[in-house]
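Record 1 of the preview.
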Amino acid sequence: MSYTVVVPAHPTLARLAPIAEDQWGLVTRRQAEDSGVSKATLTRLIGNGVLERVAHGVYRLRGVPPVDHLDLRAAWLQLAPEIPVWERSVEQGVVSHRSAAALYGLGDLSADRHEFILPARKQSRRRDVRPHVGKLTDADWSALRGLPVTRPSRIAADLLAEREDLEAVGRVVTDAIRGGFDYPATFAETLASVAAQLGLRRGDGLGALRWLLDLSGDRHAQEWLGDAQASIAHAAAKRDS
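->
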C-alpha cells in the first residue's frame, strides 16, 4: 500500500518521504543513512517528534495514517533494514505460522510472536520474533496487505509441523476454505508432507484434511472433502492421459 506523505519543504524529509510512501509511512535507520541523512540529523528528527520510533531502528513519519499490524510490519523491516520494500524477495523473509494466520484472520491462535520463514538461519535480538528456516515455492506464498505471507495451506502444514493443537489448526483450515483464501485440494496436497506425523500413511494429504475437517465440525466438511478428492482425481487422470 502506498501512502501520501505530506512533509514540509525540507531537504532531509524530502529524502525520506519517497521511502516512507511505499512502506506504510515507515523508514529504517539504515535506509535513512543510505539516502544521505546523517546520524546527527536523524537523532534531531527523532527528538523533535518528526520521526516516531516504533521498533529498534524503525521509525514512522509524523502525520501518516495509522496502519494495521504495525508491530509485525516493523519486525519484517528489521529482517533486512537496508532493503526497501519494493526490492525485497522471499530471501528477506515471509510472514508465516501464527503471524500469517493472524494476518489472514484465520482461527483463534494468539500471535504473541512475529514469525517468519527465511532461507537461512538468522538471529534476532527480539524475544517476540521467531525466525524459521525453510524453503518456499512460488505456490507457497502470496502478497497480503503489502506483506509476503504464506498461503493458508502452507500455514496449516507449518503449524502441524510445530505440534500445534489439531482443533486449532482445523479452525484455520475451515476459516480459510470458507473465506475463499485457499482450496480444499490445495490443503490436501500441502498437508501430505505432515501426514505421517499424524500417524497416517505417508503422503496421505486427504486423510490429514479429513481429520482436521472432522475436528472442526463444520457442516460443509464432507462437501469440501469431496471437492478435494474430485480435484486430485481429475489432476491424476490428466497426468496419465
